[in-house]
Amino acid sequence: MQKPINIKNKSARFEYELMDQYTAGIVLTGTEIKSIRAGKASISESFCAFSEQGELFIINMHIDEYSHGGYVNHRTKGDRKLLLKRKELQKLLKQVQNVGLTIVPLKVFLTDKGLAKVLIALAKGKKIHDKRETIKERETKRQLDRVKKNFKR
Asked: What string of H, E and C letters represents the secondary structure of 68-91?
């Protein structure tokens, strides 16, 4: 049995306020999917943008070269097309253009069939004071968990 692949963008939840989430397919070549199955990819610096034709692409996604790829290996950083339904694409395009939101990839995972999917979210950037509140909430939660743990003894 193959171990589950979850490549996450940990900074996205800290940097952005997430609104709607969508699961999108991703167009990959043979060596790219093999590298993802090996867990050698990163989406920490990536974002999503629309092309002039109205297609959605993930930009700056880093996929390491496949170790047994040879001369037919892929480029490590590049734009990769995302697959969504037309209505979802139109809704996202409208939100990005009119409201000024952005699309951020949260997670890359494999389905039961072995297909690579990307969990993307419509997001709004947080201000500095919102980030401070997030840090404060996280610290208080940790302190409460420590107190609960010590109290049970």
From this structure: CCHHHCCCCEEEEEEECCHHHHHH
The domain made up of 6-126 is a member of CATH 3.30.470.20: no
Instruction: Give tens-digit pLDDT for 46-66.
Output: 889 999 998 999 999 888 887
Question: How far is residue 38 CA from its own chain's centroid?
Answer: 17
> What is the distance, to the nearest Å, from the Cα of residue 131 to the centroid of all Cα atoms in its chain?
20
Nearest to 13 by CA among 131, 132, 143: 131
Domain chopping of the chain, boundaries: 6-126
d(CA 153, CA 84): 51
- The pTM score is 0.79
